[in-house]
Write a structure and sequence with these properties.
This protein has helices at about 5-10, 25-35, 50-60, 65-80, 80-85, 90-95, 105-120, 130, 140-150, 160-170, 180-190, 195-210, 225-230, 355-365, 365-375, and strands at about 250-260, 260-265, 280, 305, 310-315, 320-330, 340-345. By secondary structure, the chain is of the alpha+beta class. Bound molecules: iron/sulfur cluster.
Length: about 375
Amino acid sequence: MTLAGNRLRQKPVEPAGKTGPPRAADLLAWYDRHRRSLPWRAAPGEKADPYRVWLSEIMLQQTTVKAVVPYFTRFATRFPTVGELAAAERSEVLRLWAGLGYYARARNMHECAKAVIEGHGGRFPETETELAALPGIGAYTAAAIAAIAFDRPAVAIDGNVERVVTRLFAVEDELPAAKPAIKRLAGTLLPQQRTGDFAQAMMDLGATICTPKRPACVLCPWQQTCAARARGNAEGFPRKARKKSGELRRGAAFVVLRADGHVLVRTRANAGLLGGMTEVPTTEWSVDFDAATAVDQAPLAAEWRKAPGVVSHIFTHFPLELIVYVATVAARINAPRGTRFVAIAELDGEAFPNLMRKVLTRADLNRAMNARRRAHSS
Ligand code: SF4
């Protein structure tokens, strides 16, 4: 469902003429009419499946609902239970995850599935404390699962909820310092019952009505009690400290194309950025990268051609630019230690992160293959 569609279907909420603190009952009544239909959600009145709730919450970290839906569907189809996910090869999990980003999530998700099988008899624990002890489950995710899957009185605060709460109470402190106050205020809203629905209602309100820009306050069930709306400056909340962005790092990527239609790749170390994912060989990515000597670090000696432009990518902590070098080599060339050749037709089966997909697009493998064929036929 699109945001515009969601809003268009809704009628302005009748002002109730009341003031005082926001009431959970008003939000739950709105949720009963306007809840988003999402593939991981239980139907009204049905019990949620903890496995599907957990899977969706891990995928939704730093990622939009729209991007997550096809991945969730693929994972839930391939691995209908936590046991089947735990029994899978990690390479398959990473391959299915490729393109969703933040790959540590996929590795931790797989570890978590195994921990649920080995340490909890295949059932997710119900409390926030036990959930937070599992791999890849932080405070927010633990609270979300406890509330949504088990109806525990947990306060799950993500960016959407932070926005709603800071507006409702006109919280003047800047993020991230305001987080403890937001948690306390959010706790005052929590109902005695339907805490899972309440958590999802807060998420839906933040995602569809109380949006970062141009919130649709006229459709909001809390419009009469919202302090930011009363002041006429909802968009001014949450207050945010200015972010320091990381320095630009640069490097070079080397795409080696073998005459028999194979590309040289390697697997990144398991720990750290893009851990366990597939990549073409690259130099170090550094602030003081020296483009003039980059080819000296190529994985093998060849006639290197520089592809036009650069590949740009933004990681959470730094932006990156990669120069792409392409070389075609004879079919008899062996892969250097720590690398392997993969047939072009099988590249789709590799766990390439988005950055590497951009590198391969820039390298234009078809053009390189055709150029080599032409050179050998003339
Ligand atoms: Fe957000 Fe407006 Fe509702 Fe306040 S009234 S919570 S600003 S949508």
